[in-house]
Write a structure and sequence with these properties.
Helix 4 packs across helix 7 and helix 6 packs antiparallel against helix 7. It is built from seven helices and eleven strands. It is extended. It has a domain of 124 residues. With 274 residues, the chain is an alpha+beta fold. The mean pLDDT is 85.
Amino acid sequence: MARRELQEINAGSMADIAFLLLIFWLVTTTIDSDEGIKRQLPPPVPPDIDIPQAKEQNVFNVKVNFLDALLVEGEPSDILDLKDKAKNFLIATGDGIISHPVGRETVGKNREVEMITGANGKTNAAFPERLWVRKSDVMLSIAEYEAFVAASEDDSRKKNFTKVLDKWKEKLMTIELLGGDYKELPPSALISMQNDNATTYDTYLQVQNELQSAVNELRDELAIAKFGRSYKELEDLYDRNSEDKSLLDKIIAVRSVYPQRISEAEPREGSTYY
């Protein structure tokens, strides 16, 4: 009886099929990737510089304890209310340009400083008092620093004067683009966030997102009112066409009125806050 030969398996075709399946999986599958929070950290403060204490009304305090509970401006708060409270703080006494919706209310371009008494019995303003940036004052400052630059013989001093001059010219550009005088936040005004080492990462991100959304909404509202596009659209257009200086000028103008000042304090250990 003739001996039958065993059929060999064509492994080459199976390898081709496995390779095609791998390619298909790589093309069709979405791989999750964690992204960091977009922040530009300030440079370290030189040791010989004394840091002035900010006024209480110029700091919007947000604290998160180890139970993920929020304390906003000394009072327990829900994370759903955080964005509107942050917007109310950033608008402060009004930007002098347009009105902004905050929750169910509308904050006009000018409003009086509200005084409140805290748990410690002290009476302070409820929010920062914005400072007018008027064209007449800006023109005087530009003329003053142009004279300083022209008269300065020391290169270091001339460089410092030029930096200040550029800032005043930036304010003039903002006035011209926005169509008139505006009000800016005091230099010390900021949002301060402090969490606990045991705060969950999910809550941490939610708080960050709400605070960032407050800044973004105010920027969008101003940009749409003055330029017909949201702030995000202006940034996207500039990313695609970085040679268009007019787009950059509009972005700078909006940032001048609503800067992003979100500061993170050192996390605490086992904090309850309340």
